[in-house]
Design a protein that fits this description.
Length: 164
């Protein structure tokens, strides 16, 4: 089968809710409804490493954007993201389309739109240095992994219309 050559970058917890702070998870595994939409579009997935899990471990306490906004955490994010940006550049150099990124609304690390998280700020800066701008869609803060909870038309439109 021929490659479609289209990819999507996702926050880590889209595919792995085990990385989320205990008690804050919204699914038992991945966000399967979101993943199904991505798979139905035959998109490859670049899963970002979880910066909070790697920084504070599985039992870390909840922290705010301001608490994460330290030189040490920004450097940690940069170290995690540099190889990802290299990977994105390699795909782009081989004529792949990166459809965008799925972030997490109101995450102190992975909000990509409203009040961008530290991780996404660092990612945007690294992408900008490579001449890349990336569109994004954030999983709503009230999203639940139940059928009929939310119409994901916005996500479908994002995947069909956005590309870099």
């Amino acid at each position: 089968m021929k490659r479609k050559k289209e990819l999507l970058v996702t926050a880590h917890c889209i595919l792995n809710q085990n990385a989320v702070i205990k008690g804050w998870e919204r699914a038992s595994g991945p966000f399967s409804r979101i993943v199904k939409i991505v798979l139905d579009q035959n998109l490859g997935i670049i899963q970002l490493p979880c910066p909070e899990f790697r920084f504070g471990g599985e039992g870390r306490p909840p922290m705010t954007l301001q608490q994460y906004d330290t030189p040490a955490y920004r450097e940690h994010c940069r170290q995690l993201l540099e190889p990802v940006v290299e990977e994105i550049n390699e795909y782009r150099n081989k004529s792949y389309t990166i459809k965008g990124i799925i972030g997490i609304e109101r995450s102190p690390s992975c909000d990509s739109k409203g009040n961008p998280g530290i991780y996404m700020q660092v990612l945007e800066g690294l992408l900008e240095k490579s001449g890349i701008t990336m569109n994004s869609w954030d999983v709503p803060v009230d999203y639940q992994e139940t059928e009929g909870f939310r119409d994901l038309t916005e996500l479908k439109a994002f995947l069909l219309n956005q590309e870099i």
